[in-house]
Specification:
This is L-rhamnose mutarotase. The protein is of the alpha+beta class. Helices cover about 35% and strands about 20% of the residues. The chain has a four-stranded antiparallel β-sheet, with no helix packed on it.
């Protein structure tokens, strides 16, 4: 499963309306995202208009390619275009962030070369 995090820029003066639009995304858009392989998809926003997206998918490039030609995606993107700062829309391409840490991956990996935790206590003579 590929984990994807990206950044976009919404106009700060339109952020409240952008958030409101995402409280009730069109059911057809939700279904299209699901069918294209977007799972665990979330958006997070800062007051300055920075929007961070996170999703999981088998193949991000393929999932985006499956969404690209859909009529519902074209309509949704057109409706959302006025909210984005110049060059900050999903159509232009969100800036993908590099993953640098994942708890589950590290817990599942063998601790190659990692020092063992100190489990001794004072006075333990075993």
């Amino acid at each position: 499963m590929e984990r994807v995090c990206f950044r976009m820029q919404v106009r700060p003066d339109r952020l409240d309306e952008y958030i409101e639009r995402h409280r009730a995304v069109w059911p057809e858009m939700l279904q299209a995202l699901h069918e294209a392989g977007w799972t665990n998809y979330s958006l997070f926003a800062q007051d300055d208009g920075t929007v961070i997206g996170y999703l999981e998918t088998d193949d991000y490039a393929a999932a985006r390619a499956r969404m690209e030609p859909t009529e519902i995606n074209a309509r949704w993107q057109a409706s959302m275009r006025p909210f984005f700062a110049e060059g900050g829309s999903f159509e232009v391409g969100p800036v993908r962030l590099r993953e640098v840490f994942n708890l589950e991956d590290q817990l599942a990996a063998p601790a190659a070369g990692a020092p063992a935790p100190d489990t001794t206590t004072e006075g333990n003579t075993q």
